[in-house]
Amino acid sequence: MSDDLSRILQEAESAMQRAISHLETELVKIRAGRANPQMLDGLVVDYYGSPTPINQIGNISVADARTITIQPWEKNMLQPIERSIIAANIGVTPQNDGAIIRIFLPPLTEERRKELVKKVHGEGEHSRIAIRNIRRDAIEHIKKLQKTGLSEDVAKDTEKNMQTVTDKYISLVEKHLAAKEKEIMIV
User: Fold this and answer.
1) Same domain as 72, residue 124
2) Of 49, 84, 114, 126, which one has the greatest count of Cβ atoms within 10 A?
């Protein structure tokens, strides 16, 4: 029985770690006034009929704190990349000079900063919900084991351990949110 309990705890903890990793990748996509090539992660471009990630079509780099440059490996990909960025609706307009696409990030207004903080908190809430759902599923597994012969004391102890792990990951979410909020609100 203890092997089953430790497996349940390990699976739950690894799932919670994946939830934290997902939160980190989502927070990177939210711009905080500085240019970051990862803002374009997830953008796909129509590359000869097949959707291809933008970072596989050209070189993405940061020219300065407010400028991202995209240099496609093929000149005829400039228009599809430009259309893809516009269609993604990430709040920026690409500028095409015939060889390179430049994306200038405007300075954030106070209102826009507050919107971004709300978005950050929304992502944090999604992560907290995911972690709580993982905890709920683990506790349901423990209760099933209890019905098949696991002692009540061991089940309660395991549930307490599960809650401790859950609290640890919820506090990690809070730390990530606080750091991102601070990064966004710095003028």
Assistant:
1) no
2) 84
Q: Are both 118 and 58 inside the same structural domain? A: no
Task: Tell me if the pTM is above 0.85.
Answer: no
Which domain does 42 fall in, by range? 37-104
Q: 3-state SS of the chain: helix, strand, coil percent to 5?
A: 65, 15, 20
Tokens describing residue 61: 């780099």
Exposure of 134 in the CB half-sphere (CA atoms within 13 A) = 26
Same domain for 21 and 42, yes or no, is no
What angle in degrees, to the nearest 10, is found between the helix axes of 110-147 and 152-185?
A: 170
CA dist 185 and 106 (Å) reads 15
How far apart, in whole angstroms, are the C-alpha atoms of residue 143 and residue 140? 5
Question: Where in the chain does DSSP place strands (E)?
Answer: 44-47, 50-53, 58-64, 67-72, 94-96, 101-104
Which tens digits make up the pLDDT trace of 24-45?
888 877 766 677 787 777 788 8
